[in-house]
Amino acid sequence: MASDTSRTAPRTFPGWAVPGVFVVGAVAQYLGAAVGVFLFDTTSPTTVAWLRAAGAAVILLAWRRPWRTRWTRRSVLAATGFGVVTVAMNLAFYEAIARIPLGTAVAVEFLGPVAVAALGSRRPRDVLSLALVIVGVALAAGATGDVGAVGVAFALTAAALWAAYVVLGTVVADAGRGLDSLAVGMGAATVLLAPIGLTPQLLADPGVFAHPATWALGLGIGLLSSVVPYALDQVVLRSVGRARFALLLALLPTTATVVGLVVLGQLPEITEAVGIAFVVVALMLGGVDRRPRPADPPRSADPPRPADPPPTRAPKGLT
Length: 319
What we know:
Blueprint: H1 4-8, H2 18-39, H3 45-64, H4 73-97, H5 102-109, H6 111-121, H7 124-142, H8 149-175, H9 179-192, H10 194-204, H11 212-248, H12 251-264, H13 270-285
Helix pairs in contact: 2-11, 2-12, 3-4, 3-9, 3-10, 3-11, 4-8, 4-9, 5-8, 5-12, 5-13, 6-7, 6-8, 7-13, 12-13
């Protein structure tokens, strides 16, 4: 049986192609979220998020077949906790984008990992990065007015869950199971959180589940928003390392804003745009990694690259 490392270690991209590959993953991620917004007319945002998780779990389990490797109780529990936090974060995120623009929700969400990075390292630049994010979030959230207050609250909840994801993601990364852990975690979380994800729709209009298109769209959103970006991020991380990968994060709020504008017609207000810009600058200054790096082989096999940031600066949520 092939080792887990050989199963999960991805190929690398040449340096010139890395930004483009990262953007492809980001566009897929937020395009999937935008498709989810179109479903809100007939389907509860929480249910759409659950369908996304279920779709991603089906694809990942079929692709990775994690049962081929030996799992300990600890690794299963770690993967399950990781999956539950990930899916819960997406539930909150979808409730947020049902009420506020996509770009704003993404900007607010970054408060979580940036706070963890600042508290974990205490470097002056990380503290400044956190201050910039707080200002940016205040500007972007303030532009939504009272109507978007509930959406901002959901985005802040997603940010808090993203912070928890950072901690759990580091544990999963240390286990070295990569996409296998994600497959197990998403599968377990889909089952455990089914009552939360399905109840709103069952109470409102259970007939939605009788349409094959509902499940097909859930599968498609899971592929776009979870599987594609996560898989590409692992290859990008291996190609450039965490330090340069952290800089690429600055593209995410901008990408989400562009997708929101082009696909959903969400034109940000001036204050909102300035707030998102503050978050972008903060990410360029401090930097936090978007997802754990479980695909890397042991250190002795790694090619030379800049030193990695502390583990608390690790992963990003699958929003």
